[in-house]
Write a structure and sequence with these properties.
The structure holds 2 protein chains of 2 kinds.
Chain A (H helix, E strand, L loop, with lengths): L2 H9 L3 H22 L4 H18 L10 H20 L22 H19 L2 H12 L4 H8 L3 H22 L6
Helix pairs in contact in A: 1-2, 2-3, 2-4, 3-4, 5-8, 6-8, 7-8
Chain B lengths: L6 H11 L7 H18 L6 H10 L1 H14 L4 H4 L26 E3 L34 E3 L3 E2 L6 E3 L24 E3 L4 E19 L12 E5 L9 E5 L23 E17 L8 E3 L1 E8 L21
Antiparallel strand pairs in B: 1-2, 3-11, 4-6, 5-10, 6-9, 6-11, 7-8, 7-9
C-alpha cells in the first residue's frame, strides 16, 4: 500500500492502516530523535510519542498527495525536538540518563576509539544536513534494506527517480562527510 | 541502477553512525495503543441535526438578528446571514467583528512601511544570477492594499528562536521596531534556524515584512514563512512564503524566488490569513552559514474574541504574493 492509500484509509478510521504507517515510519522518527538528542532514550521516547500522537490528531486535515509523508513526520519531529531542547536546555546540557553511545573518548582511549566517535558524530551531522527525502532514502536502503522499488512506493516516485535521489544523496553524503570529519568531537 | 563499489562503506558508516537500537517493545506497543485511542476520538462524525443546532446556538446573536430583520422588513434574508458549518478538521477564517451587526464595506488603503536607511550601494559580484534568484530592481514595489486601521501587530511581541544561545543579540531585537543593522540584530547559528513571533492573540494578517542583515548584499537561503494557531506549529500550519526551491529545509518545495537583501527588506502579502503565531525560517546565506534577523513586522488586525458580534467581510482580499 502506498503512503497516500494508508493516509486515506486512516482518515476513514482504519486502525490496520494506522498500524502499518506506524511500523513504516517508527524507525526513521526514532533514529532521528536519538540522533538529535544525543542518545537520551527517555527524551527520544517523548519526541517519538509526541510526534506520532500529533500526526494522528492532524491526519484528518492532511492531503497525502501534497508531499512526502516521511518529510511531514520528520517536520513534526523537528518541532518536538526543539520543544525538548527548550524545556531542557541545549543538547549538551541534556542529562544522559541512558546514552545509546559511549561519550566522546579522550586521547587516552587510543586512536581507534577517537576515530570511531569522530565518525559517528560526523555521520549524524551529515545526515542532518540532507534533505528529508535523501535522508529517508539512505536510511531505507542501507539501514532497513529496502529495495529501490519499495522506496519508490514510499516516496511516490518512479524507480528511476529513486535511483537518482539515492545517487544525489550518496554524493551529498560523501562531500559533506569529508568536510565534516576533521571537526568532529572537538 | 546507479550504484558503485563505495555503497558498502556507506552502509557501514550509516550503521555505525546513525542507526540506533530499536525502542523498547513495551514503549512501541503503548504508543500504538494511544494512537489508536486518538484515532477513535478523531473519527469524523456525521453532520447530524444536533450538530447543526449546536452550531446555530453558538451563533445565536446572528440567528436572532436575522429573525428580527426578517420580521421587521417582511423579508427573509437568510442568504446574507446564513451560518455555514466549517469543514471537518479545518479552522476557517472568522469574520472581523464590527460595532453594528450590519456588514460595512471595508476601506482598503495602500500599506505604508517605514524603511530604514540604505546601508550599501552596488552589488556583490559573488552572487551569481540563477533562475531561482529575483533580478535586482530599483523600481518601487507595487503597494499592498490592506484594510484601513491595519498596524504592525508584532511590535514588542515576544520572540523565540530555534537557537537558544544566539551568536549575537537577543530574540526581542526582532520586534523592537529598529531596522538598522548596526543598532542591534539577532544572529543564529549555522544551518536551518527559525524565529517565531507570538502575536498574543489571533490576528488577521495582511502583510509580513522581513529584514535580514542588510548591511551587505547577500542572499538568505530557504526563506520560509509560516503561520499557525499553536506554538508548536502543528495546528493549521500555512505557508505564506517559501523560496526553498530544492526542499533542502524539508518544508516542501517553494515557488517564491530568492532575493538580494537590501534596506527595503521583503514584503509579503498574506491576504488576511488568520493566525496567532508567525515563524520565519532561513538556512544561512551567501556570505556565511549563519542566520540574521534585524526586524520582522506583521501587519494585521486583532480578531475579536469568540462570541463578539460577527459580520461577513465584504471585500475580496488579494491572493498571497510576494514582492
Amino acid at each position: 500500500m502506498t503512503d497516500a492509500e494508508l493516509i486515506h484509509a486512516i482518515q476513514a478510521g482504519d486502525e490496520t492502516a494506522l498500524d502499518a504507517l506506524y511500523q513504516r515510519y517508527l524507525p526513521s522518527v526514532w533514529r532521528y530523535a536519538c540522533s538529535q538528542l544525543a542518545g537520551n532514550v527517555p527524551a527520544a521516547e517523548d519526541v517519538t510519542s509526541e510526534t506520532f500522537l500529533a500526526a494522528v490528531r492532524q491526519i484528518g486535515a492532511l492531503s497525502p498527495e501534497g508531499g512526502s509523508v516521511g518529510g511531514w513526520l520528520l517536520g513534526i519531529a523537528r518541532h518536538k525536538v526543539a520543544d525538548v531542547r527548550r524545556r531542557r536546555g541545549r543538547e549538551r546540557t541534556v542529562a544522559m540518563e541512558t546514552p545509546l553511545d559511549p561519550p566522546c573518548p579522550s586521547a587516552e582511549d587510543g586512536p581507534a576509539a577517537l576515530e570511531s566517535a569522530e565518525t559517528r558524530a560526523s555521520v549524524r551531522r551529515v545526515m542532518d544536513s540532507l534533505a528529508d527525502d535523501e535522508r529517508l532514502a539512505l536510511e531505507w536502503k542501507y539501514l532497513d534494506d529496502l529495495s529501490v522499488r519499495e522506496i519508490a512506493v514510499r516516496l511516490r516516485r518512479t524507480e528511476k527517480a529513486v535511483e537518482a535521489v539515492l545517487y544525489r544523496a550518496r554524493n551529498a553524503f560523501r562531500v559533506a562527510f569529508d568536510r565534516a570529519r576533521p571537526t568532529a568531537c572537538e | 541502477m546507479i550504484a558503485n563499489d563505495r555503497d558498502e562503506p556507506l552502509g557501514h558508516l550509516l550503521k555505525a553512525g546513525y542507526d540506533a537500537p530499536p525502542p523498547a517493545a513495551r514503549f512501541t506497543e503503548d504508543l500504538l495503543e494511544r494512537m489508536r485511542g486518538e484515532l477513535g476520538a478523531a473519527k469524523p462524525q456525521p453532520r447530524d441535526f444536533s450538530r447543526i443546532v449546536l452550531t446555530l446556538s453558538r451563533h445565536w446573536r446572528l440567528v436572532a438578528a436575522a429573525v428580527v430583520l426578517a420580521a421587521g422588513a417582511g423579508l427573509v434574508l437568510l442568504s446574507q446571514n446564513s451560518v455555514v458549518l466549517p469543514p471537518d478538521g479545518a479552522a476557517p477564517n472568522r469574520p472581523i467583528a464590527e460595532s453594528t451587526p450590519e456588514a460595512k464595506p471595508v476601506r482598503m488603503v495602500p500599506l505604508e512601511v517605514k524603511l530604514p536607511r540604505a546601508e550599501f550601494v552596488g552589488t556583490d559580484p559573488n552572487i551569481k544570477q540563477s533562475p531561482h534568484l529575483e533580478k535586482p530592481s530599483d523600481k518601487p514595489r507595487p503597494p499592498i492594499m490592506v484594510p484601513e486601521g491595519t498596524k504592525n501587530v508584532a511590535l514588542g511581541k515576544p520572540v523565540s528562536a530555534s537557537d537558544n544561545e544566539p551568536v549575537v543579540g537577543e530574540a526581542e531585537l526582532v520586534t523592537d521596531g529598529n531596522k538598522a543593522t548596526q543598532e542591534g540584530h539577532l544572529e543564529l547559528g549555522p544551518g536551518r534556524q527559525w524565529v517565531q513571533i507570538d502575536l498574543k492573540e489571533p490576528c488577521a494578517i495582511y502583510a509580513i515584512a522581513i529584514w535580514h542583515y542588510h548591511g551587505l548584499p547577500c542572499v538568505y537561503h530557504d526563506v520560509v514563512v509560516q503561520v499557525a494557531d499553536d506554538p508548536d506549529f502543528i495546528e493549521n500550519v500555512r505557508t505564506v512564503y517559501n523560496n526553498d526551491y530544492d526542499n533542502s529545509a524539508g518544508l516542501g518545495i517553494g515557488k517564491d524566488l530568492e532575493y538580494i537583501e537590501d534596506y527595503r527588506g521583503r514584503l509579503i502579502a498574506a491576504g488576511g490569513i488568520q493566525a496567532r503565531y508567525v515563524r520565519l525560517y532561513s538556512s544561512g546565506n551567501t556570505a556565511n552559514d549563519r542566520n540574521h534577523y534585524v526586524e520582522v513586522e506583521v501587519y494585521g488586525k486583532t480578531l475579536p474574541a469568540e462570541g463578539a458580534k460577527e459580520v461577513p467581510l465584504k471585500v475580496e482580499l488579494p491572493k498571497a504574493t510576494a514582492r
